[in-house]
Amino acid sequence: MDHRILAEGLAFPEGPVFLDDGSVLVVEIAAGRITRIRPDGSTQTIATPGGGPNGAAIGPDGALYVCNNGGFTWHETAGMRVPGHAAPDYTTGRIERVDLATGRVDRLYDRCDGRKLSGPNDIVFDSSGGFWFTDLGKSFPTHADHGGLYWARPDGREIRCAVYGPRMNGVGLSPDGRTIYTALTHERQILAFEVLGPGEVAPSPLAALPGRVVTSFPGRILLDSMAILASGRIAQATLVERPGIATVDPEGGEVAFAEFPDLLVTNIAFGGADRCDAAICLSGSGRVALARWPEPGLELAFHA
């Protein structure tokens, strides 16, 4: 797809968020910081929470809410930066609130039901002001923690686990808010869950196999983050074997690809007056691309 590079030299950018002034916020996971990219491509550090800031979203108070995975080890492969196991100083994952005006970082949650968060990954707010987030778990040389799907209030007072077990990456809500989608990176599946209420999804016939499979990807196509289009279709970031953005019909599972030049295409976000401006994270090479998408992204619940 035709695109231009908005910014480069970034330390594994992810979690893009369009602001109303046309700038784009990204996290730089490998540097533990949050960065504003202005329309002219210049950058400004907003905050440095450390660890591994990952998915991000604007909340009802105009602050940025960030999934922090706690940090990775990093490797250089064929000119790309690639994440690995948990960082040596890893202690836990957490959810953080970042004041965009001051850069202040407050920790809201680092555990649920007495169990620590392992690697919070992606986040989306619902229309009531609560947020859903995924946990990818955490990999260690000899084992891996479980992940799941969670819901929480932005005031730090309540967190619920909706699904525990699967190591979930991207997350998105359908336009009517009745369905939540998650991506399983290594299983190469997009799952759908019926939302029954805050932090509650419809039970599955087998708890070990939660959700409905929207579609599965073949070979070594791995899945990362996602965004939802105004049509209700899913824009799913894909890695390695066919890197780019896959547009997925959530009912029939049909898939169309837009390819981008990086093995680790991790995220897409939509903005601009018509929400057809797309910011795509080419994370392995440390770049953010801009493209004009053929259809608008879904308007998010909150803006800043």
Domain unit count: 1
How many runs of DSSP E, i.e. beta strands?
29
CATH class: Mainly Beta
Q: What is the fold named in CATH at topology level?
A: Neuraminidase
Order of H and E elements? EEEEEEEEEEEEEEEEEEEEEEEEEEEEE
Cα radius of gyration in angstroms: 17 Å
Shape: globular
Distance between the termini: 28 Å
Structural class: mainly beta
Largest sheet: 5 strands, antiparallel
Mean pLDDT: 97
> Regions with pLDDT < 50 over 5+ consecutive residues?
none
**CATH homologous superfamily - what is it?**
TolB, C-terminal domain
Residue fraction in strands: over 45%
As a percent range, the share of helical residues equals under 10%
CATH architecture: 6 Propeller
Number of helices: 0
Q: Can you characterise this structure?
A:
This protein is mainly beta and 304 residues long. It has one domain: Neuraminidase. 0% of the residues lie in helices and 52% in strands. The strands form eight sheets. Strands 18, 19, 20, 21 and 22 form a five-stranded antiparallel β-sheet that branches. Strands 1-29-28-27 form a four-stranded antiparallel β-sheet, with no helix packed on it.
